[in-house]
Amino acid sequence: WEAHDPYHLAKRLRSIPVYLSCGDGTTGPLDTPGATSALEADFNRQNQALAAELRRVGARHLTTNFYGPGTHGWAYWERELHASLPMLLGALGLPG
Predict the structure, then answer these.
(1) 8 Å CB contact between 73 and 26
(2) How far is the C-alpha of 74 from the C-alpha of 82, rounded, in Å?
(3) Closest to 40 measured CA to CA, from 52, 25, 58, 50
(4) DSSP characters over 54-85
(5) Residue 92: partners with Cβ closer than 8 Å, 6 or more residues away
(6) Domain-located, residue 82
(7) Does a structural domain hold residue 77?
(8) What is d(CA 61, CA 15) in angstroms, rounded to the nearest whole number?
(9) How far apart are CA 41 and CA 69, in angstroms?
(10) For residue 65, what are the domain limits?
(11) What's the N-to-C CA distance of the chain in angstroms?
(12) Is the residue at 96 inside a domain?
């Protein structure tokens, strides 16, 4: 498992652009009232831990957006894809 877990591979990711974003699983601005997501809450915990580990090992190209309230839904994915696309294209050597 560890051979494929980014947390355990953090040293190998130090020079690779990494974009991490997630909500905290509570109702956010793009959710229907009362929506929650235990899955997103767990992803938030995992992403926060990965970001901390990447910082600890000296990652040079880490971008994070832990935006607080928000669940695991397309509206957030679409927003974050647009936000991360310039970094992703740049990492591939494509114009952004």
Answers:
(1) no
(2) 12
(3) 25
(4) HHHTT-SSEEEEEEES--SSHHHHHHHHHHHH
(5) none
(6) yes
(7) yes
(8) 7
(9) 10
(10) 2-91
(11) 34
(12) no
Q: Which residues contact 17 (CB under 8 A, 6 or more apart)?
A: 61, 63, 87, 88, 90, 91
Contact by Cβ (8 Å): 33, 27: yes
Instruction: Look up residue 16 and give its two tokens.
Output: 């690779």
Each residue's pLDDT expressed in tens, for the chain with a length of 96 residues: 899 999 999 999 999 999 999 999 999 999 999 999 999 999 999 999 999 999 999 999 999 999 999 999 999 999 999 999 999 999 899 986
Q: How many domains in the chain?
A: 1
Whether residue 38 lies inside any domain: the answer is yes
pTM of the model: 0.91
- Cα angle vertex 82, ends 3, 27, to 5°? 80
Tell me, what amino acid is at 54? L
Residue 63 main-chain phi, psi, to 5 deg: -120, 130
The CA angle 6-66-14, to the nearest 5 degrees, is 35
